[in-house]
Automatic annotation (TrEMBL):
It is found in: Cytoplasm. Its cofactor is [4Fe-4S] cluster. The keyword Lyase applies. The gene is Aco1. Its EC number is 4.2.1.3. It catalyses: citrate = D-threo-isocitrate. It comes from Toxostoma redivivum. This is Cytoplasmic aconitate hydratase. It comes from the Eukaryota. Belongs to the aconitase/IPM isomerase family. PROSITE patterns: ACONITASE_1 (PS00450), ACONITASE_2 (PS01244). Keywords: 4Fe-4S, Cytoplasm, Iron, Iron-sulfur, Lyase, Metal-binding.
Length: 710
């Protein structure tokens, strides 16, 4: 059946009549102008895909009537423009497609007809681990180990990239999925099959929401909180096969930002404040849409940081509508200028280009909550949950309170007489001491922060001032820098701050999630022995997005999320038990006390360096060769057959049984009998507790099985 809304289709440019779009402004329905911008994206997709089969006129009416229907628990279909996957959760999807080809072949069909219908990108970023650090060749050594450990998986994925149409694989060593999406993959407006329409994406990783910061509606598979509209692997595969997501029409919380951030405040401080605030408001299963004049004070990188941690505050999406700053970001990151101008014209035509200073554009929301950015102070989150925000000025007191508090999210139940326990140990021929609160991991990691030039350059400038002041980091602390893309290394190097980061031990160790997902690698044996001997609450400080107990490292019971500059500051201090306002970071060789305020860069300093060194040419140079730059990937000998040859001895990749017994005749669904709950958990139990991404324990059944298979 033809689309019933075909009458509102028109060319964007009369000179290019074949380039069309569904002009929602021509609906002549007063309700449209009052819809949240995120709901307008759902509406456009429903109108464009309306076929009275998968998407019906009634669905369009329900979305258009959002103000009433948001409270009715009504389901609506949504067909995203793209799918994005990472390697851990993406491999099963490619395995299923390979199995589908086998099934079609057995039934006498053409297996090459099995391909994703919806464009899909798979970014390999979850495999690399911090095995080596503090060495100039750490990056190469870690990448070599990554390929050694993951050779079978990588060969399989490379086969998939060659065998399937509409599936693009971004090789390992390229960056973190969400930063690559932000800087390169995202279109903002799609130009496909003769139509312009809003870019949108679902992913098999929970932090897919980061792209909401650019104005691309997206969300992913949730692993920290329940959501009415979460996307798991099955749903993502369905979208790849052209099926819509069936989602509950969400309520939309309007989050109004006003005021200007204080001089010392970073985007990390803002997102940790937003996370705590929205956890208190309660936004599970809802969209959050940001508005207000304060949004105009935030860069796209700042907005992306806030959107990235959407799973931590429980919402489905954290949407920043497109504005002129978004358009400027597309140009800054090297996107084609002519396409960017088409993007702006399209969004203006359909009423989706936002001016955050113009309150007359403010849509209706389910409820409105407000944050004055001027009230945000430097902070961290921990010791066990991302929503447990602690002002930096309170960190020492808060940690010492947690030491003696009852075992729980804010307690370790250490006996009072052991609060000041000290364990001496030897590392590389020198004697050191560890105590409760000693920092043993300091990682600048995660797309949450490494996508933001202001905090990365801030960290670099702080490192420069620290080195020049004669400060150092103790050698046993596992320091690391894992950028989310090659662009980060480029501007850190060009601006001259990379060598100071290296001097403090923050060498580039890889391009991937690494410490943020628990791939922090081993600690020195003498450090582990000291922690174990004293039953110490050792600390990890990281610029990541999650810090659940056991996620970062088995031996760091306390883990704090912090901005990249604060990661370096705590690494220099060597302990979390420090009041930066009253106590020095350290004493240099001349005996001078150096305080954090002495080396903290000003916002003007950071912005001057950013303007000079974060330029479009860097993004173009890095991303033009992203699919071919990894020599180890290029050298992989992947099979060229259109059907995958399964290895029966494989411990990782097996043909699934879902299509066994499949016939051409449609079989009647069988009744499900004796089904039962597999696992039932209390609050805040996550996939990190059930199946950590780090090393498999040597004494576990899984380890024994793998060892038996060689």
């Amino acid at each position: 059946m033809s689309n019933p809304f075909i009458q509102i289709v028109e060319p964007l440019d009369p000179k290019q009549p074949l380039k069309k779009f569904f002009n929602l402004s021509k609906l002549e329905d007063v309700r449209y102008a009052h819809l949240p911008f995120s709901i307008r994206v759902l509406l456009e997709a429903a109108i464009r895909n309306c076929d009275e089969f998968l998407v019906k006129k009634g669905d369009v009416e329900n979305i258009l009537n959002w103000k009433v229907m948001q409270h009715k628990n009504v389901e609506v279909p949504f067909k995203p423009a793209r799918v994005i996957l990472q390697d851990f959760t993406g491999v099963p999807a490619v395995v299923d497609f390979a199995a589908m080809r086998d099934a079609v072949k057995k039934l006498g069909g053409d297996p090459e007809k099995i391909n994703p219908i919806c464009p899909a990108d798979l970014v390999i970023d979850h495999s690399i681990q911090v095995d080596f650090n503090r060495q100039s060749d750490s990056l190469q050594k870690n990448q070599d180990l990554e390929f050694e450990r993951n050779k079978e998986r990588f060969e399989f994925l490379k086969w998939g990239s060659q065998a399937f149409k509409n599936l693009r694989i971004i090789p390992p060593g390229s960056g973190i999925i969400h930063q690559v999406n932000l800087e390169y993959l995202a279109r903002v407006v799609m130009d496909q099959d003769g139509y312009y329409y809003p870019d949108s994406v679902v992913g098999t990783d929970s932090h897919t929401t980061m792209i909401d910061g650019l104005g691309v509606l997206g969300w992913g598979m949730y692993s920290s909180v329940s959501s009415l509209s979460s996307v798991g692997g099955i749903e993502a595969e369905a979208v790849m096969l052209g099926q819509p997501i069936s989602m509950v029409l969400p309520e939309v919380v309007g989050y109004k930002l006003v005021g200007n951030p204080q001089q010392l405040v970073t985007s990390t401080d803002i997102v940790l404040t937003v996370t705590k605030h929205l956890r208190q408001v309660g936004v599970v299963g809802k969209f959050v849409e940001f508005f207000g004049p304060g949004v105009a004070q935030l860069s796209i990188a700042d907005r992306a940081t806030i959107a990235n941690m959407c799973p931590e505050y429980g919402a489905t999406a954290a949407y920043f509508p497109v504005d002129d700053i978004s358009i400027g970001y597309l140009i800054q990151t090297g996107r084609d200028k002519e396409k960017v101008m088409c993007t702006k014209r399209y969004l203006e035509a359909v009423g989706m280009l936002r001016d955050f200073k113009n309150s007359s554009q403010d849509p209706d929301f389910t409820q409105v909550v407000e944050l004055d950015l001027h009230t945000v102070v430097p902070c961290c989150s921990g010791p066990k949950r991302p929503q447990d925000k602690v002002a930096v000025s309170d960190m020492k007191k808060d940690f010492e309170t947690c030491l003696g508090a009852k075992q729980g999210f804010k307690g370790f139940q250490i006996a009072p007489d052991r609060h000041n326990s000290i364990v001496k140990f030897n590392f590389e021929g020198c004697d050191f001491e560890l105590a409760h609160g000693s920092v043993v991991i300091a990682a600048i990691t995660s797309c949450t922060n490494t996508s933001n030039p202001s905090v990365m350059l801030g960290a670099g400038l702080l490192a420069k001032k620290a080195v020049e002041a004669g400060l150092t980091v103790k050698p046993y602390i596992k320091t690391s820098l894992s950028p989310g893309s090659g662009v980060v290394t480029y501007y850190l190097r060009e601006s001259g701050v990379m060598r100071y980061l290296s001097q403090l031990g923050f060498e580039v160790v890889g391009y991937g999630c690494m410490t943020c997902i628990g791939n922090s690698g081993p600690l020195p044996e003498s450090v582990v022995e000291a922690i174990t001997q004293g039953d110490l609450v050792a600390v990890g400080v990281l610029s990541g997005n999650r810090n659940f107990e056991g996620r970062v490292h088995p031996n760091t019971r306390a883990n704090y999320l912090a901005s990249p500059p604060l990661v370096i500051a705590y690494a220099i201090a060597g302990t979390i038990r420090i009041d930066f306002e009253k106590e020095p970071l350290g004493i240099n060789a001349s005996g001078k006390k150096i305080f954090l305020k002495d080396i903290w860069p000003t916002r003007n300093e950071i912005q001057a360096v950013e303007r000079q060194f974060v330029i479009p040419g860097m993004f173009k140079e890095v991303y033009e060769k992203i699919e071919t730059v990894n020599k180890a990937w290029n050298a992989l000998d992947a099979p060229s057959d259109k059907l995958y040859t399964w290895n029966p001895k494989s411990t990782y990749i097996k043909s699934p049984p879902f299509f066994d017994g499949l016939t051409l005749a449609l079989q009647t669904p069988k009744t499900i009998e004796d089904a039962y709950v597999l696992l039932s958990f209390g609050d805040s139990v996550t996939t990190d507790h059930i199946s950590p991404a780090g090393n498999i324990a040597r004494n576990s059944p899984a380890a024994r099985y793998l060892t038996s298979r060689g």
